[in-house]
């Protein structure tokens, strides 16, 4: 059976990652969370006080940082690693969410991440979620989904996720963060968040994760 690329793009907190992860498991494909890569870069910039306006410092940082993924057999979780260290929990915190979209506008950062993502998916058989997968990273992806959902519903979901990880965040702060990120992501000059002409729109406002997974798997089955 031929292997394809499934690109899942869309607004923040629509359930892209959860859906993509489950679709990958169902299909025996690799799952690549490109948002985690931008989050890890943001963490590195934060830890090393890299100025967003200093091209030399950015170039040096990009030479010195390495983002990878590791499947932890013990926990059964996919972990994002920065220079070999597990940063999975750290990159999900609000202070990273509050800086990641700015970091993601930096052209050199995008070029480095897109090149790595293209290498990771070159053999196909991947489900990749992000903002520019169907438009920039893999414009030739066989399946393209563009996810959206009501902002309040997205914020509520994010609040529950953060609470499960022990971080209590005010709903208004989450709404503000989602709206700000969506705005920055959609208006940046380099590969902005936009629905690819051949992507299929999926509004997840009133869908359960299982339904979303089923919907994507059925769509993918028609392309294999
Ligand atoms: O998917 P997640 O919400 O974790 O992504 C965090 C941020 O990373 C997004 O708000 C966006 O600014 C950036 N991002 C991006 N391009 C991608 C994936 C994520 O610019 N392909």
From TrEMBL:
One of its GO terms (biological process) is pyrimidine nucleotide metabolic process. Keywords: ATP-binding, Cytoplasm, Kinase, Nucleotide-binding, Transferase. It comes from the Bacteria. ATP binds at residues 10-18. Its EC number is 2.7.4.25. The keyword Nucleotidyltransferase does not apply. CDD domains: CMPK. It is found in: Cytoplasm. One of its GO terms (molecular function) is ATP binding. Gene3D superfamilies: P-loop containing nucleotide triphosphate hydrolases. It holds the Pfam family Cytidylate_kin. It catalyses: CMP + ATP = CDP + ADP; dCMP + ATP = dCDP + ADP. Residues 6-220 form the Cytidylate kinase domain. The keyword Cytoplasm applies. One of its GO terms (cellular component) is cytoplasm. Belongs to the cytidylate kinase family. Type 1 subfamily. NCBIfam families: cmk. This is Cytidylate kinase. It comes from Fibrella rubiginis. The gene is cmk.
């Amino acid at each position: 059976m031929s292997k394809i690329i499934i690109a899942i793009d869309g607004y923040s907190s629509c359930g892209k990652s959860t859906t993509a992860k489950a679709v990958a498991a169902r299909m025996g494909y690799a799952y690549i969370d490109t948002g985690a890569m931008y989050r890890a870069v943001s963490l590195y910039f934060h830890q090393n006080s890299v100025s967003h306006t200093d091209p030399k410092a950015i170039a040096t940082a990009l030479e010195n940082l390495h983002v990878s993924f590791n499947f932890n057999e013990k926990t059964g979780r996919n972990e994002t690693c920065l220079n070999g260290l597990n940063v999975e929990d750290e990159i999900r915190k609000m202070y990273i969410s509050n800086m990641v979209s700015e970091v993601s506008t930096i052209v050199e950062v995008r070029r480095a991440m897109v090149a790595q993502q293209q290498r990771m998916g070159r053999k196909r058989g991947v489900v990749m979620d992000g903002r520019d997968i169907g438009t920039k990273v893999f414009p030739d992806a066989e399946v393209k989904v563009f996810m959206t959902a009501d902002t309040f519903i997205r914020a509520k979901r994010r609040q529950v996720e953060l609470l499960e990880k022990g971080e209590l965040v005010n709903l208004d702060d989450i709404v503000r963060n989602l709206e700000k990120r969506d705005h920055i992501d959609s208006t940046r000059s380099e590969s902005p968040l936009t629905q690819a002409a051949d992507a299929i729109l999926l509004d997840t406002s009133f869908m359960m994760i299982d339904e979303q997974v089923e919907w994507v798997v059925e769509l993918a089955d028609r392309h294999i």
